[in-house]
Amino acid sequence: MGLSIDTEYLIQRLGIPPEKIQMQYSNMTAEEILKAEASQGNQAAIELATKVLSDTKFVIELFELANPENKLIILKQMNERELVEYLPLMEKEDLLQGLFFFSQDQLMILLQELPPEQLVDVVLELFSKEQIVSYMPEKQLDKILTDDNTDKVRILENMKFIQKEYLYQMLESVTGEEIAPDTSSSELLQKISKLNDGDFKNGLRNLKVPAKQDLTILMIRENQRLMEKFDPSAYTNIINDHKFQPDVVKAMHVVEKEEIIKMIEKLPKDMLSIVITQMDTEQFAKIVMAKNPEILAKILATQ
User: HEC states along the chain?
Assistant: First the structure.
């Protein structure tokens, strides 16, 4: 399939009489017609030969670049390195459409490669904090609650909102001592605060899952950055279990453009070319004229 040059548009711009086209130029390429007319002093032909390299509007009309199929034919003549150079110049919304070329499983791999803060942003587009915590495996909750960088003071403050029965259970699990039933929550918390770091973390691990979930939610409401401690694979397992590709791609609008480009670069060459056809037509023409004028000349020569 060849690119469709608008021959009628070319003839009109050159002002060539129809009979001359029939008698002299019927078997000539567009480039040959341009050269012939220019050599005969046709000023319009001389100007148009220059316009192929300088006039964006002319190139768009001549090569009918508003048609994505014509863009694709031009792009197929480029190598992958040349194609990749187009991506940073595309609108983010157009790049996102390329993510539909990835399967669900492939998208999960790409998400795991994101910077943690951007992965969290995507997940929060799909689920509430409460949903995320409810889906998280217990070991992931432990990662937040027992991380060396997690603020122990903030944990103790938030434990004020945990049911007293869980505080009993936590304390007894590490001390081995029975706690008097009438011990108040504040007294329990005071005892917990005096535990050494090892016992404190073990006590948190020994909490029942509902208490861990409540405590984790309280912690991440205060500091969303704590969500970056969850394993990327834990997030993608949740997404894969509860969402489908269209929802995932829609949520990825929060990902920075640079990261989207890294993903699109992983597409096979043919698919990468299709993504670039979504580029603004004027922008596309300008780049081809600047970076790949030899392709335009080659196409003209074969018309």
Answer: CCCCCCHHHHHHHHCCCHHHHHHHCCCCCHHHHHHHHHHCCCHHHHHHHHHHHHCHHHHHHHCCCCCHHHHHHHHCCCCHHHHHCCHHHCCHHHHHHHHHHCCHHHHHHHHHCCCHHHHHHHHHHHCCHHHHHHHCCHHHHHHHHHCCCCCHHHHHHHHHHCCHHHHHHHHHHHHCCCCCCCCCHHHHHHHHHCCCHHHHHHHHHHCCHHHHHHHHHHHHHHCHHHHHHCCHHHHHHHHHHHCCHHHHHHHHHHCCHHHHHHHHCCCCHHHHHHHHCCCCHHHHHHHHHHHCHHHHHHHHHCC
203 and 193 Cβ atoms separated by less than 8 Å: no
The percent of residues above 90 in pLDDT, for the chain, comes to 66
pLDDT tens, residue by residue, 77-88? 999 999 999 999
Structural contact between residues 18 and 29, judged by C-beta atoms closer than 8 angstroms: no
Buried b (16+ CB within 10 A) or exposed e, 206-242: bbeeebbbbbbbbbbeeeeebbebbebebbbbbbbee
Give which of 191, 194, 216 is closest to 205, Cα–Cα: 216
pTM for the full model? 0.80
User: What pLDDT sits at residue 295?
Assistant: 81
Residue 137: pLDDT over 70: yes
Cα–Cα dist 288/74, whole Å: 9
- Tens digit of pLDDT for each residue in 12-44? 666 667 677 667 766 666 656 666 665 666 665
- Determine the residue type at 153: V
Q: What is the mean pLDDT of residues 241-249?
A: 97
